[in-house]
Write a structure and sequence with these properties.
The structure holds two protein chains of two kinds. Chain A has 18 helices and 20 strands. Chain A is α+β, with helices and mostly antiparallel strands. By secondary structure, chain B is an alpha+beta fold. Classes of the chains: A alpha+beta, B alpha+beta. Bound molecules: flavin-adenine dinucleotide (FAD) (2 copies).
Chain lengths: ~500, ~425
């Protein structure tokens, strides 16, 4: 178990800390005023809030290291924040912490087309990379829907995915190396410009570690050549089963689309209400967006095959797009799905779970039943190709009790995912939101073993404390580890924390 | 029976223990090639289940015995030398397919399963684990993961690290721990799969592995382009910057082959796509004045089968990596310091291997020194190109004189801290890994 350094709220001389920080950085890189801190109280999961004691905005690895060293010496917990679009409370401050924000680290440091690698600072926005290299015919593959806003550092920490990750993989498959400031302030380089460097795959363990092992200050990424031909197919179906069958058929035929997404009737109507793409048929029970890419002849042949499969499974109509603008138009609604929900309802809750793809139809039915049981409608927008579900629940946080009810429903959906052999998160991370569900998926031994890694790197437990792993404090007294026995039974029913 | 064997027999039955003297001589040699000292281990344990594996580990932990896992033993000699081993734990009997979720394109297997056996079962469903089948006649799934090898298909499918989506492993204390799961997308908890891939048995013993699978492609064709190095360099760069999507693209130096130095690209998919792509590559070849040989169907299969068998057990074998742009000069350099060496480099990752015949070189000290000096030169070139050179296979005497891993970075302390957590009493293949871990 990682010890969280005991910090008493009143004992810390924050003025002294701020003075020290202002010596390490310049005064305008250190924020302490209440109004300035407000926007840093939460990430994309707005239902959890906590004010950091102080916010710092370092510009270089050295500045990050200096701030972290100070935290280490004075036992101050610190939390890293990228763009704050995370949906699991990963960048949620903990009480009396220093928040280290990477928004001043936005340089693209190197572009090497010959070797298809780029080196960037962590605050660089995901989409900027593709923008920077597209002139030469390259792109950066992982494309979260938040790609216009989220940072590469956040992507690395969450191992983010996107609609184009079915064929090309998620963030971890594209990160070659990292420069990292460890929780004790030391700087190390892991991985590199070449994969499989000698030694343990530390890059592999850092990606997805949600800021609990240190702060990433430089990232080496692979970039890919833009495919020669791309085609998006929009197919509409009168049943979810038919759409699900089509997904299975495509994969079984040996075709790996670049992206394979499904939206149900509720979500596509929400999108049309708000974004008015005028391309999704409002009476469709489910639509599939299928993107294929590669050599022109290959794309044309696969498109034909896919079209046949759609029709075989009862698709009513198909729209094909090859032109960039047309393709973007078809994708626009999908990418704006979360935002559309935000416009339709005062609040919305996004769940993120994974199931084996073959269980799709049955799980979607059960989700609908769970929604009915809890009294909420659930919209489904998801990465069908890899079984990554994003049930969306609309609610109003001003109505007392609704958030709790919605969280309970979200929790039931997660348990359903685990019960069919899936996972409690496919891309949004565990953060503060789902740590108490970890015992549903992992035994006490599993979690203890993961904590070995945390203990090895984050010795004092100061880096993003309380995230990912359940603790007695966050999930109740029963989350005690160390005896090697399963605690999952004991932790069940602990949805509210 | 010695004390170690007796205690282990009590736990998992005498059937699960093989005394050292009863071990096949071939296997004895393989084991001894991995150990620095002359003293052999007391016995080989052959657990039948992961629970038994855990029991053996727990007993070893109580007594402080040092252990080394073994798959098929085919490449046990790779890596550093362990400092004395009390027990070898063989996964040979842990060879079941736990679940092949056909529709989900995943498979869960035990570590002792041979790669060939697995591929056969998968092939019945037109699926495969997308790694090259080199040495597959022998290699076990666990051994291949523990040594992190992938091969030419890395170009399209990435490394084993990118395919391993879940693990169970026996910890030093005998507890079985899991990470990941059985779904292809999953970010819950730390990615211990990647930590264990390539850890050479130094952190625990893999007891169950789940992989993502890929469909077998209907059409496969390779083009063998040969010419001087300059043309190969130019063509490789052009392919890298083109929209072509070969599943493999290797630069190969092989004096025994008719082509000598060649660029080989493999295309797979539906016929129309393969046809289109190979036509375009042929055009590139023509502009650079390269000879071009097309391999279809059985010839394509045969080429890759054969090239997989190029690695032999009695050579000096190095794994290298460098920025792909440094490949041509590496080839020239290798040719200069190791005339006649075989080289295969994967064009987009910059990984690959160099194999040197050594039988006659080691007859005297001068030749041995030359060999070491040559290795240092090649390693230095790789490192200047952000890469590395690791000596996988070499006579013990040579290994003893150099740092086989060639780790140059500044994160050794982090690796040490991790090793200390996973193996606090330094019992798991001690000394074998980077930095003597
Ligand atoms: C509308 C919307 C759509 C989204 N769509 C997707 C999607 O399609 N796919 C997907 O995967 N996610 C999606 N997300 C979630 C989110 O955008 C991603 O998790 C993203 O990677 C977070 O990046 P960020 O810069 O905002 O990180 P933050 O929210 O600031 O931080 C996220 C985590 O990363 C850590 N962190 C940040 N920077 C660093 C660093 N330099 N070093 C170490 N740790 C660091 C933080 O401590 C925190 O734990 C979506 C979010 C929204 C709001
Ligand atoms: C450059 C290069 C090219 C190669 N080419 C190929 C190739 O293309 N295809 C191919 O199949 N092989 C190739 N090899 C060899 C291959 O990667 C493996 O080394 C070999 O196949 C291991 O199988 P094995 O069962 O014989 O393992 P062993 O030789 O028994 O063991 C190998 C190592 O793994 C450890 N180990 C074994 N089982 C476990 C376990 N369950 N848990 C933890 N540790 C374990 C052992 O202690 C040992 O350190 C290549 C290697 C390299 C580096």
């Amino acid at each position: 178990m990682v010890a969280v350094a005991a910090v008493s709220k009143t004992s810390r001389d924050w003025r002294g800390v701020v003075r020290s920080l202002e010596k390490l950085l310049s005064a305008n890189q250190v924020m302490r005023r209440k109004e300035e801190l407000l926007v840093y109280e939460c990430d994309g999961l707005t239902s959890y809030r906590e004010r950091p004691a102080v916010v710092t905005l370092p510009k270089t690895t050295e500045e990050v290291a200096a701030v972290v060293k100070l935290c280490h010496e004075q036992n101050i917990p610190f939390v890293t924040r990228g763009a704050g679009t995370g949906l699991s409370g990963g960048a949620l401050p903990v009480a009396e912490c220093v928040l280290i924000v990477t928004t001043c680290m936005q340089q693209i440091l190197d572009i090497d087309y010959d070797n298809q690698r780029v080196v960037v600072q962590p605050g660089v926005i995901n989409n900027w990379i593709t923008q920077a290299v597209s002139g030469a015919g390259f792109y950066y593959a992982p494309d979260p829907s938040s790609q216009l806003a989220c940072s590469i550092g956040g992507n690395v920490a969450e191992n983010s995915g996107g609609v184009h990750c079915l064929k090309y993989g998620v963030t971890t498959n594209h990160v070659l190396g990292l420069k990292v400031v460890l929780p004790d302030g030391e700087t190390v380089d892991i991985g590199g410009a070449v994969p499989e460097m000698p030694g343990y795959d530390l890059t592999g363990i850092f990606v997805g570690s949600e800021g609990t092992l240190g702060i990433v200050t430089e990232v080496t990424l692979r970039i890919l050549k833009v495919p020669e031909a791309v085609q998006v197919i929009l197919a509409d179906f009168t049943s979810v089963e038919a759409a699900g069958e089509t997904v299975s058929d495509i994969i079984s035929a040996g075709i790996i689309p670049a992206g394979l997404e499904m939206m149900d009737n509720f979500s596509l109507n929400a999108v049309e209400d708000v974004v008015a793409t005028n391309c999704y048929p409002r009476d469709a029970v489910a639509i599939l967006l299928i993107e294929i890419d590669g050599a022109a002849a290959e794309v044309a042949a696969s498109a034909k095959q896919i079209a046949a499969m759609c029709y075989k499974n009862g698709a009513r109509q198909l729209t094909h797009a090859t032109d960039v603008q047309e393709r973007l138009r078809l994708w626009k609604g999908r990418k704006a799905a979360f935002a559309a929900m935000g416009k339709l309802s005062p609040d919305y809750y996004v769940q993120d779970g994974v199931i084996p793809r073959t269980r799709l139809p049955e799980v979607l039915q059960q989700i609908e039943a769970l929604g009915a049981k809890h009294g909420y409608r659930v919209a489904n927008v998801f990465h069908a190709g890899d079984g990554n579900l994003h049930p969306l629940i609309l609610y109003n946080n001003n109505i007392p009790g609704q958030l709790e009810e919605v969280e309970a429903l979200g929790g039931d959906i997660l348990k359903l995912c685990v019960s069919v052999g899936g996972s409690i998160s496919g891309e949004h991370g565990i953060g503060a939101d789902k740590r108490c569900y970890m015992p549903n998926m992992f035994s006490a031994t599993d979690l203890e073993t993961m904590q070995w890694v945390r203990g090895a790197l984050n010795k004092k437990g100061l880096a993003n404390p309380t995230k990912i792993f359940p603790t007695p404090k966050t999930c109740g007294e029963s989350a005690q580890f160390g005896n090697g026995k399963g605690v999952s039974e004991r932790l069940e029913g602990l949805e509210n924390f | 029976m010695n004390k170690i064997a007796a205690l282990l027999s009590d736990a998992i039955g005498s059937d699960g223990i093989q005394l050292w003297d009863a071990v096949e001589p071939r296997q004895q040699l393989q084991v001894m090639s991995a150990i620095a000292t002359e003293a052999p281990p007391a016995c080989v344990a052959l657990p039948n289940t992961s629970d038994q594996l855990g029991q053996v580990m727990a007993i070893a932990a109580q007594h402080g015995w040092r252990i080394m896992p073994m798959g098929q033993g085919s490449k046990l000699g790779w890596g550093g030398l362990a400092h004395g081993i009390d027990i070898v734990i063989s996964t040979a009997r842990l060879n079941r397919i736990v679940e092949h979720a056909v529709g989900d394109y995943t498979v869960t297997v035990e570590p002792g399963l041979k790669i060939t056996a697995l591929q056969q079962v998968l092939a019945e469903q037109q699926q495969s684990l997308a790694i090259d089948p080199a040495f597959d006649q022998l290699a076990s799934v666990g051994g291949v993961v523990a040594t992190a090898d992938t091969g030419s298909l890395r170009q399209r499918y990435g490394g084993l690290r990118d395919m391993l989506i879940g693990v169970q492993f026996a910890r030093y204390d005998g507890e079985l721990a899991r990470a990941g799961g059985r779904v292809v997308k999953n970010v819950a908890g730390y990615d211990l799969m990647k930590l264990l891939t390539g850890s050479y048995g130094s952190l625990g013993i893999l007891s169950e592995l789940t992989f993502r699978l890929y469909p077998v492609q209907r059409c496969s064709r390779s083009l063998l382009l040969s010419a001087g190095l300059q043309a190969i360099e130019a063509a490789t760069a052009e392919v890298r910057l083109s929209g072509l999507t070969p599943v493999a693209m290797d630069v190969v130096v092989d004096r025994t082959a008719a082509e000598g130095t060649s660029l080989v690209a493999r295309f797979q998919g539906i016929e129309a796509g393969v046809e289109e792509q190979t036509e375009r590559l042929k055009k590139i070849a023509t502009t650079h004045g390269m000879a071009c040989k097309q391999l279809d169907g059985e010839a394509d299969e045969a080429y890759w089968r054969q090239s997989a068998q190029a690695i032999r057990a009695d050579t000096l074998l190095c794994k290298v990596g460098l920025r792909p742009s440094g490949i041509p000069w590496l080839i020239e350099l290798a040719d200069m310091v190791f005339p006649g060496a075989q080289v295969r480099l994967y064009g987009s990752s910059g990984l690959g291997w160099i194999q040197v015949e050594i039988a006659e070189r080691l007859t005297d000290e001068r030749l041995e020194n030359e060999l070491l000096a040559g290795l240092a030169k090649v390693r230095s070139h790789c490192q200047k190109n952000a890469g590395f050179l690791t000596v996988l296979q070499a006579p013990k005497a040579v290994k003893a004189k150099l740092d086989v891993w060639g780790y140059e970075g500044n994160a050794l302390d982090v690796m040490k801290a991790i090793k200390e957590k996973f193996d606090p009493n330094n019992q798991l293949s001690p000394g074998r890994f980077v930095g003597g871990l």
